[in-house]
Amino acid sequence: MVRGRIHSFESFGTVDGPGIRFVVFMQGCMMRCKYCHNPDTWNLSGGKEYFPEEIAEKALKYKNYFADRGGVTISGGEPLLQIDFLIELFEILKRHGIHTCVDTDGFSFSKSDEKTLDKFKKLISVTDLFLLDIKQISRQKHISLTGFPNDHSLNFAEFLSDNGKDMWIRYVLVPGYTDDENDVLKLAEFIKSLKTVRKVEVLPYHTLGKSKYKDLGLKYSLEGVEPPDDKTIKKTREILKI
What we know:
242 residues; alpha/beta; eight-stranded mixed β-sheet; 9 helices; globular
């Protein structure tokens, strides 16, 4: 029986999918996004280990609060790094009629590896919604921003679309990194090519996680970068509106 490494929980989340959510933050992430506000989730060997049944038991305690429109969201870190655990957990939750959601950047997706692809097909069969973080549409800028190319994220978006799986696209708006209008226009074109995008969320960059870097002895790469102004936020949302 597989165990998962968990960073933390949120009992009454309201920004990680529809309705009130029980949110599980998984431990471990390979990307090093410059604007990440949870660097404490990066360590792959951190967190506390749980069995899927233990997490399901915790979530079901709140079923009366989210039964109508909410559910359970798995975030991170990057939850797809622990896909076997995720599948087992969601299989349990679906037996209890719980709406399931994954917040991911699609980092570990591969369309060329049959074994991996089979796992993803199993995952989408027990997942109602994906919150897909697209960091940057430009491959080179994505590498500069996160340390990795964006191929997996874009391929995963197409995989979800081709398999009729609902998704919300999330885009963090960072001055000097993701606010170039040409990049936003290209992202809008990509989103239009997808058949199952139900919502696009533009999330303005903030500095709320900055203190964590100091606590962890890490350099904060965006020192001096301020949140985007209202005009830029409004313009970006207009371009990406579906």
